[in-house]
Design a protein that fits this description.
single chain; about 40% helix; alpha/beta; about 15% strand
Length: about 350
């Protein structure tokens, strides 16, 4: 699928003192006609989700006082008008020690969607495999974090954590970020159902076997990065849960879901045994290598800033479209993941 345009997020452009930065991750796409107030960064190639956000944040904070907040918004997210009105007030009223605000997600049908997850451990993985993710979130609320489609994070916190880790191309970026946030003593609060956002979801994966393998590869990167917390047993537990899931889906007559779990398992095992493996770099997605993502996604130091400014960024990717916007009042970063 192709990445979305930015028209559904234009109300953010009209927020007071809001500046939008569009990061185009498709090397061959040129955004020549964009609304006033939108800056386009392009020509760097498909750097994926987290690196694109880092690039947008660096650009948004290099030429003036850093905004107080960054708002990360996926390309397949729509912000209802009521939420748009209340959002600047919420961010302005939220004071330390809160570092991150999560939001309720609704699907395109208006029903509750997946807006939260729980940090991986051998216990949470096993629990999720048996009872589901919602049950694991309820069991371990202290490990709950927002999915990457939509959340707000203080600019100061984002910089203190070093932003997203460019080692990840498409998956586990926010999991890694929030694991580091909790390890640093950070705090996450939730806006609740009064300020939902609409999320179509599923666009970063579609039905691509390579992207399923990339999901497994990212899990292997996460296992190496957080081995001191996860322990050496976590990859084995994760692999076992994927095997159980594949068997259950096959028995239930859902061969595609079984194949998906099997491909994630293969990506995990290959990523564990071959740390430098990057299948997406030689695929139709033409992903930029981890070495170059590290260079492009290195955060520039932010200037001390105006706590009332809002930042948003908007980014588009060949594999996913990411947005980061910068606006006054509270910063926002918007991101998309859309397979082409």
């Amino acid at each position: 699928m192709r990445s979305h345009g930015i028209t559904e997020h234009l109300p953010l452009v009209n927020m007071p003192d809001c500046r939008v930065i569009l990061v185009e991750n498709d090397r061959w796409t040129r955004n020549c006609s964009v609304p006033d107030g939108v800056t386009v960064l392009q020509g760097h190639g498909n750097v994926g989700y987290g690196t694109a956000v880092n690039m947008a944040v660096s650009y948004a904070t290099e030429d003036g006082p850093a905004p107080g907040w960054l708002l990360v918004v996926n390309s397949d997210v729509t912000i209802p008008s009521e939420t748009q009105v209340m959002l600047p007030y919420l961010l302005a009223a939220t004071t330390p020690p809160v570092d991150v605000i999560g939001f309720a997600m609704r699907g395109s049908d208006g029903n509750h969607g997946r807006g939260t997850a729980v940090l991986p451990t051998w216990k949470t993985n096993a629990y999720t495999a048996v009872l589901g993710e919602a049950a694991a979130v309820a069991r371990w609320p202290e490990l709950r974090y927002p999915i990457g489609a939509f959340f707000a994070i203080r600019t100061e916190t984002f910089h203190r954590l070093g932003g997203f880790d460019p080692s990840y191309w498409l998956y586990y970026e926010e999991t890694d970020l929030f694991a580091r946030l909790y390890a640093a003593g950070g705090n996450i609060v939730w806006a609740g159902d009064a300020m939902p956002v609409m999320h179509a979801g599923g666009e970063s994966t579609g039905r691509s076997g390579l992207l399923y393998a990339e999901l497994g590869r990212s899990a292997a990167v996460y296992a190496r990065r957080h081995r001191h917390v996860l322990g050496r047993s976590w990859p084995a537990v994760h692999a076992a849960t994927l095997s159980v899931l594949a068997t259950r889906k096959l028995a239930a007559g859902r061969p595609h879901d079984a194949l998906r779990a099997a491909r994630i398992f293969t990506g995990l095992m290959t990523g564990l045994t071959r740390p430098g493996w990057e299948p997406a770099t030689s695929s139709q997605w033409a992903a930029v290598s981890a070495h170059d993502r590290s260079r492009l996604g290195r955060l520039r130091p932010a200037r001390p800033g105006d706590r009332t400014r809002l930042t948003a960024s908007d980014q588009k990717t060949g594999v996913g479209t990411h947005r980061s916007r910068r606006c006054a009042g509270a910063p926002a970063t918007s991101t998309r993941r859309t397979a082409r």
